[in-house]
Amino acid sequence: MSFFTIRFKGPLAALQGPRIDGEPQTLPIPTPSLITGMIGAALGISRAEAERLQALQDGMRLACVVHKPGVEVIDYQIADLSKPYLVGPMWSSGARIVEREGSQITGLRQQWKPYLADVDMTLVVELDPSAPNTAEEIIAAFHEPARPLFLGRSSCPPDVALAGAIIEAAGLEDAVNKVASERSSALIYLPAGCTQPQWGDLPVSIPGRRDWPANRHSGSELYVCRQPAAVEPG
Hints:
The protein is of the alpha+beta class. The protein has one domain (2-71, 121-221): Alpha-Beta Plaits (2-Layer Sandwich), CATH 3.30.70.2660. It is built from four helices and eight strands; from the N terminus they run βααβββαβαβββ. The chain has helices spanning 32-43, 50-58, 135-143, 172-182; strands spanning 2-13, 60-68, 71-80, 108-127, 163-168, 187-191, 202-211, 216-226. Strands 1, 2, 3, 4, 5, 6, 7 and 8 form an eight-stranded antiparallel beta sheet that branches. A hairpin with a 4-residue loop joins strand 7 and strand 8. The longest helix has 12 residues, at 32-43. 30% of the residues are buried.
C-alpha cells in the first residue's frame, strides 16, 4: 500500500479544537479538517466548493509522528466591539457575509488564541481508493501550491517544504513506524482502528472533523498515543 507524508514544522503552529467561546482547546496534532484545508489550498479548491473539500476529508486517514511537540503559547487579544467599523455586517474571505450574533454586541471582548511554538511533526496520510486526488497530485501541489500554505493560521508559515514522500508499507501503522525510525521521535499518534492495544497506550480524542457544506464541527477521531519503539543501534 502507498502512503505519503507531510512535513509540519515551524516556529509557530495554530492547532485548536472547535471554538465555542473565547478559550479554544489546544490540540497536540493537526486535525483532519486542518489538513483538508491545507491540501485544498494547495490544489486551488475554493472554500465555497464544500462538496470537494468534504470528499477530500472523507477520503483520507491521518496518523502523526511527533519529533518535537512544541511549547504552548497563548496570545491574549482584546477587541472593542463599539468601534463603528465593527458594527453591522462584515467582509469575509469566504462565500458569505459575516454578521455578529449573540448577546455581546458592544463593549470589550476578550479571547485567547493558542499556539504551539517550535513544533516539528510528520503526518502520514492514507488515501482511500475513492479519494478524489492521488498522493502524487497532492505532493505536486505542495511543491507548487495554488495559494500560500500555513500551519493553521496565516501568522504561522512553515520553515520547511510541506511536501514529503510516498512510502510503501503494509499498513498505516507500519508506515508510521518507518517514519519514526528514520528520525528522533517523541510520540506517535495512530487512529485507534488501525492498531492493537499496547501497554502504556494513551487514548486521545481529537475533535477535528468538519461538515464542510454545513460549515460546522461534525465529530472527533479517537487516536492512540504511544512512544515509538526504540531504534537499535546499527
